[in-house]
Design brief:
- The protein has 652 residues and is α+β, with helices and mostly antiparallel strands.
- The protein contains 28 helices and 17 strands.
- The strands form 3 sheets. It has a 6-stranded antiparallel beta sheet.
- β2 and β3 form a beta hairpin.
- It is globular and about 70 Å long.
- 51% of the residues are buried.
Length: 652
């Protein structure tokens, strides 16, 4: 795990300037690689690297050049099956100088070109250059676990692992991209490869770019999710295959030359990863948990303890406080580059910080909800579908995934989601699937009440819904379940992975996610929805597969928490309330013109608990202060969706 940055220039001269700028970019991401720095320059290309040494601590320095001098690579991530690929290359006569996965990746690209991507099992973002033909190649792992941003400038294509590194380049100035902002105001994340910064994009997961000099000549996907349903096999067949793949993925991702641990929340996904990891490490794994003292509804540690005892692991726990929240949130917004996700990123950071004091690599359960159907909103969506089918005798999906009779035993899971149900069913009942799921994931109703008239008028709701539809209606998905899960896999999951990457790398900790293995995803997406989501039971196929691995106390849980933070309790006390007031009622926020001061003041002075409205506004304002201080929203035009034209000053 590392950080990369550099310049692919159209000019062979001025190497010293390019190296100087690249080092300034690397200085912004030292946290990603405190173990070493390297810069390589030749001809048109300057590649930089910050290293967090995980595999081959002595021989894996980067950028790495081939023995013949023709090829060079700068690589962030891990290739988990590098040992198998190394043997394959040795059998072809390839000689190696190191034991690193970086050299394996370099040689794979030399000998197999872009076809090598199909053989890689890992998380990665890299830049590979052929100095003889003057051509380059950028690629990112299938799920976007590792980040890769770029910007096309008059001085060439500039790339980096984080946006803040790109902003160190003199040709890149922070300007707001309103098109992505209106997506953020709707979902609290973006839907595509654009970012909140105009002119800065991210390479899409599972994609590559090829070019010459400063010019990109081709951009394409090399891997994507598919939903070709396998109706020929039984549930036992899928469970057997899934079990083998889960175990093998954890086995591969335990490969490391430094200590490895696991996140352990007490939920199903992290518990499964911990139990499998313990089986491959003779119970010597360290586990890390976070909890709050404000009440049992904020403490899952007793569930984590069940798994810790069953796995014979050593468990460490941290209890974040309100004072920690005030101290951490501005730093976290800077670490994220863009405001993403909910308050859970704060305790996630605190657990990562705890883990970094004991291990250098950590495994987690990220991706399990999106892949196996773990969100309560899937059940809520299907409850409506079941009612609709029973009353109106509709068959939108062909055969319904669940019937009203089969879903009833699993409805107690929705007890804690009563406000969501009240909001969901107040209008549009029995509408089209796309409209109904859009309503379930739409967060704009909470924050739009705070926006000024100019900002509100600039949001094109039809445009955002059309963007949503283009992802939701994947051609090979017919079932409502697969449409919902596909949307989340393509939009919510990358946002969560961005959080995962930033909160771990902020403390120089490598985070791995074994559930996101292409083999697992391909298998699960081929399972018939009726089998995968039997009776509306969340994560049915996963629970059936691992019922003899994960303790029963975890499998039978009905109180899915998702790392809740006691913000409404803290907000009732002066320190957190004063912190929020200082940010949202300060002169910078008032002069910006995005939020109505009277609406903010009503929330601050009222008895309503801290909710999505204040959270979204707080993060957005802190982001402006960190990156775009001086931005004004006055005079925005509703038709100008790429954002207002003024240049924005980067805060020092």
């Amino acid at each position: 795990m590392c950080g990369i940055a550099g310049i692919l220039s159209g000019d062979v001269g001025d190497i010293e300037r390019r190296e100087s700028v690249t080092r300034q970019m690397l200085a912004r991401i030292v946290h990603r690689g405190p173990d070493g720095e390297g810069v390589f320059s030749r001809g048109r290309y300057t590649l930089g690297h910050r290293r967090l040494a995980i595999i081959d601590l002595e021989g894996g320095a980067q950028p790495m050049q081939s023995a013949c001098g023709r090829y060079v690579i700068s690589f962030n991530g891990e290739i988990y099956n590098y040992r198998e690929l190394r043997r394959r290359l040795i059998n072809r006569g390839v000689a190696f100088r190191t034991q690193s996965d970086t050299e394996v990746l370099l040689q794979m690209l030399i000998h197999e070109g872009e076809e090598a991507l199909h053989a890689l099992n890992g998380m990665f973002a890299f830049v590979f250059v052929d100095l003889q033909t003057d051509r380059w190649f950028l690629a990112r792992d299938p799920f976007g676990i590792k980040p890769l941003y770029y910007s096309e400038t008059d001085q060439g294509l500039v790339f980096a692992s984080e946006i803040k590194a790109l902003l160190a380049h003199p040709s890149i100035v922070g300007e707001l991209n309103w098109g992505t902002m209106q997506q953020y105001l709707t979902f609290q994340f973006g839907l595509d490869e654009q970012t909140l910064f105009r002119g800065i994009q991210k390479l899409a997961p599972g994609s590559y770019m090829k070019g010459h000099g400063a010019r990109c000549e081709r951009m394409a996907r090399y891997w994507d999710t598919t939903y070709r349903i396998d109706g020929d096999h039984t549930e036992d067949y899928f469970k057997n295959d899934l079990r083998v793949l889960l175990d093998d993925s954890v086995r591969l991702q335990l490969r490391s030359d430094v200590p490895v641990g696991t996140y352990l929340s007490g939920g199903l996904d992290s518990s499964l990863v911990t139990m499998l990891a313990a089986g491959h490490t003779n119970g010597s794994i360290k586990t890390f948990n976070g909890k709050f003292d404000e009440g049992p509804e904020y403490d899952e540690s007793h569930y984590a303890r069940i798994v810790s005892d069953a796995s014979n692991s050593e468990m460490f726990s941290v209890t974040p406080t309100a004072e920690d929240f005030i101290e951490d949130l501005p730093k976290l917004i800077y670490a994220l580059d863009e405001p993403m996700g909910g308050p859970g990123l704060f305790p996630q950071y605190r657990v990562s910080k705890l883990a970094a004091g004991h291990v250098k690599v950590i495994l987690g359960g990220q991706g399990g909800d999106e892949l196996f159907g773990g969100y309560a909103r899937y059940l809520l969506g299907y409850l409506e579908q079941a009612l609709k089918g029973a009353i109106m005798q509709t068959q939108e999906e062909g055969q319904h995934v669940v019937t009203l009779a089969s879903i009833i035993p699993n409805l107690p899971l929705l007890d804690q989601y009563r406000p969501l149900m009240q909001s969901f069913w107040k209008d549009g009942l029995f509408g089209d699937m796309d409209r109904r799921y859009f309503q379930l994931v739409d967060r704009s109703q909470q924050i739009e009440t705070l926006l000024t008239d100019d900002a509100l008028a600039a949001i094109n709701r039809d445009e955002v819904f059309a963007q949503f539809q283009s992802i939701f209606h994947r051609p090979d998905t017919r079932s409502y379940l697969n449409k919902m899960m596909h949307f989340d896999l393509k939009t919510l999951l990358p946002a969560l992975l961005q959080i995962e990457d930033r909160v771990s790398m902020a403390v120089s900790l490598e985070s791995r996610v074994p559930l996101l293995d292409c083999r697992i995803v391909d298998l699960v997406n081929s399972i018939p929805p009726q089998m995968k989501f039997h009776g509306g039971k969340t994560k049915h196929i996963l629970k059936e597969t691992v019922c003899d691995i994960v303790p029963k106390g975890i499998l039978q849980r009905k109180d899915k928490m998702g790392f809740p933070v006691p913000l409404h309790k803290w907000f009732a006390e002066s320190p957190v309330r004063d912190f929020v007031r200082d940010v949202l009622m300060g002169s910078a926020c008032r002069e910006r013109g995005l939020f109505r001061p009277d609406a903010i003041e009503t929330l601050l002075d009222g008895e309503q608990p801290f909710g999505r409205q204040l959270w979204g506004a707080l993060c957005l304002e802190l982001w402006h202060q960190q990156f775009l201080d001086g931005m004004s929203y006055s005079g925005m035009e509703p038709t100008q969706h790429t954002g207002p034209p003024p240049t924005l000053r980067l805060a020092s």
